[in-house]
Every structure is written in C-alpha cells, then in structure tokens.
C-alpha cells in the first residue's frame, strides 16, 4: 500500500497483516505513516497503490462501518454530554435506541466513567476523555478495532482497564490494531508487532521472535566496582552500564571470574533485548543503511559526471 502527499511519500509499499483475535502493535516515530495507514483502512483516505483486504477480499464500505476507531486527537464533541453523545454515535452505526442506551451504560461502567455520564466532555480530565473515546469505539460492537495511541494520558489503573478490554475483544475474535509510543505496553500486550519507518515495515513478527532475534546481553551487577571493570576482559565487546555485549566465542565464566575479582556480584544473567532496545537498533541500522546507500549513489553520480 502506498500513499503520497505531493512530493512527500507517506506510505511506501506498506504490507501489514492482522489476524482474527490478534492484538497487533503498530509502532514507529512521528511521521512514520501509522495514522495515514489507519485512515486508509477506515476509508477516510484512499491509497495511491495497493488495497485493504478483509477476509481475503477488498474491504467494503459496509465492513468499514463495523470498525471501531479511536483517533489520537480528541474526536468528541466537547460541549455534548457523555452518554448523550455515545448514544448518538451508536445510533449512527445502526443500533436502535434501546440497544444503544444499554451498550453505552455497559461500556461507561466497564471503563469506570459511569458517574460522568451527564457531564460535558470538555469538563472531563484528559484521561477520562480517553476512556470515553474508547467507549465510542466500542458501543456498536465492532468487528475490527483500530486504535491510534489509545494509552496516551492514562494513569496505571486506566491502562490496566483498557488492556483488559482489548484482551477480551481479541478473545472474541476481533482483530485489534493499535499504535503506541509506549513500547513496554506494546511488548506486554501484543501478539505481533510491526515497526514502520518512512512508510515501510522494517521489522515484523511475534514479539518473542523479534526479541530472540536480537543480540542477547549479559547483565552483571557488581557492588563497588569501577564503571569500566569489564574493560580488557577477553570476549567483552562493549559495556553499557551493567549490560555487556560479548563476542560469540567469549567464555561467560571468565567474565564471572573477572566480576568476582572486581567486587560482590549481585546479578549475573543473560537478557534478550526489550522491544524498546530492538526498536532503537532496527531504526538506527535502517538509518545507517540509508546513509550508506545515499553515499554510494552520490559517489556513483560524481564518478559518472567526472567520466
């Protein structure tokens, strides 16, 4: 899927697959193309090339009407009362009034904002507005959930509530796609993750598979040791605080002996990179490769001009 705004290429051959009952994280920097991709799924924007498929066939307007969408920006009417607004939105999605009222009551209670049902949206805290926005995405019993930064501004209790809701919807078979800069949450919650950069997926797969593909590091905590205690230890390639990067042939027992000589060892364990560390590595490698390719292209162009 591709999309350009004038000379700016927002999506460049984006390929993303979200299965039924799957919570899929969609992560990338600001301007990477996440929101553009979501808007194309919703039918708000059209793709210049490629298409969105649901159940193996191009997505229709009828299917798009069943999507529950939560935008990053506040998308509610600020002066309209919470329950009144949610009933209105549910009825716009085709629910009769009695079902709409029942659904609104259910979700306001589930999300912990039932006491604010009669308040204007603008009088709510940002966190409670976020809860109401999630309710707006859920009141019509969506077949698909697409959420843009749903955890933004939430306190830890609200994060737990929202996480439980997403897990429950996935358990019902609903595909859940959400973007977030909070990679610890993405790692904890998602079945699979796609990392997007410059409109292209640069890494994708199950979270555990992505992490296991990264270089494991040896975490060694030594009380009272100098910061560079591992300098010169055979096989240690790099020391970043308590984390050591070892050469493949390195003997970790030799590292342990050096650590014990430096002071009391309080922790000695292998650790796979977190999703945050993996993200930084993937993006930095991509930047380095792009810079190298650009330099090669420039050199080739200069050589051609010289010839």
Automatic annotation (TrEMBL):
Keyword Nucleotide-binding assigned: yes
Entry membrane topology: Peripheral membrane protein
Every ABC transporter domain range: 2-223
Subcellular location, record wording: Cell membrane
GO molecular function, one term: ATP binding
Transmembrane segments: none
Keywords from the named record: Antibiotic resistance, ATP-binding, Nucleotide-binding, Transport
SUPFAM superfamilies reported for this sequence: P-loop containing nucleoside triphosphate hydrolases
Major site of localization recorded for this protein: membrane
Cell inner membrane recorded as keyword: no
Organism domain of life: Bacteria
Family label: Belongs to the ABC transporter superfamily.
Protein name: ATP-binding cassette domain-containing protein
């Amino acid at each position: 899927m591709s999309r350009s705004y004038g000379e700016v290429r927002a999506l460049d051959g984006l390929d993303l697959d979200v299965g039924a009952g799957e919570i899929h994280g969609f992560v990338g920097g600001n301007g990477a193309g996440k929101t553009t991709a979501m808007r194309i799924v919703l039918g708000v924007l059209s793709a210049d090339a490629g298409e969105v498929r649901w159940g193996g066939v191009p997505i229709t307007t009828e299917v798009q009407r069943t999507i529950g969408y939560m935008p990053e920006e506040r998308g509610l009417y600020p002066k309209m009362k919470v329950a009144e607004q949610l009933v209105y939105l549910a009825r716009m999605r085709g629910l009769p009034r009695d079902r709409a009222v029942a659904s609104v009551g259910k979700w306001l209670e589930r999300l912990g904002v039932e006491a604010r049902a009669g308040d204007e949206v603008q009088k709510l805290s940002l966190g409670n507005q976020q809860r109401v926005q999630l309710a707006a995405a859920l009141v019509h019993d969506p077949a698909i959930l697409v959420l843009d930064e749903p955890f933004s501004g939430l306190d830890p209790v609200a994060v737990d509530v929202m996480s439980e809701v997403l897990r429950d919807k996935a358990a019902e078979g609903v595909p859940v796609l959400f973007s977030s800069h909070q990679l610890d949450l993405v790692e904890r919650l998602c079945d699979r993750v796609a990392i997007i950069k410059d409109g292209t997926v640069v890494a994708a797969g199950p979270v555990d598979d992505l992490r296991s593909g990264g270089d494991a590091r040896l975490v060694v905590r030594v009380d009272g040791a100098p910061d560079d205690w591992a300098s010169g230890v055979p096989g240690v390639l790099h020391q970043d605080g308590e984390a050591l990067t070892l050469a493949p042939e390195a003997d970790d027992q030799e590292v342990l002996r050096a650590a014990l000589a430096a002071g009391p060892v309080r922790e000695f364990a292998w650790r796979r990179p977190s999703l945050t560390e993996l993200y930084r590595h993937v993006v930095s490698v991509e930047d380095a490769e792009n810079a190298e390719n650009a330099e090669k292209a420039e050199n080739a162009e200069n050589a051609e001009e010289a010839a």
